[in-house]
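Figure 2 data, in text form.
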Amino acid sequence: MSRVGKNPVAVPNGVTINLTEAVFSAKGKLGELSLNLTSDVAVTQEDNQIWVKPKNDSKRARALWGTTRANIANLVAGVSEGFTRKLEITGVGYRAQVQGNKLVLQLGFSHDVEMDIPSGISVVAEKPTLIAISGADKQLVGQFAANARGWRGPEPYKGKGVRYEGEYILRKEGKKK
């Protein structure tokens, strides 16, 4: 039994839900997002709550029960509040800036890394060493942050590189004489 799937998803004020047999969509102040539903789970709306139940007792239905509920909760939270990921850049000469619709990272390579910012998210370089990525779609925000971090992940000796805000880097001891 899913512990996550048992709980309902609360719909805050200002969020409009449109529920059909195959598509769940939510519209709020930050935009509109939709989710394709599988035939293994049943989604119902009662008052300001959304309930997800498995249609049968198959392994697939039980697996998708909690996943569907979590995805619906992320949609509702995204269109009402949004999601933000912050990246810290550590290292001499490492910095970031936003130029138009591109994020430009200087990470010690011979060239600047230019990343196209997808529609639906906004990127702000609060400082040259701090980037804030925000948007309504949790998956899109997280994937863009992971792609930016992937260019130069934090290394364990000096801690240089791009890391998530608050991420702890396990440091290693350097060479000994």
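Caption note: The chain has a mean pLDDT of 92.
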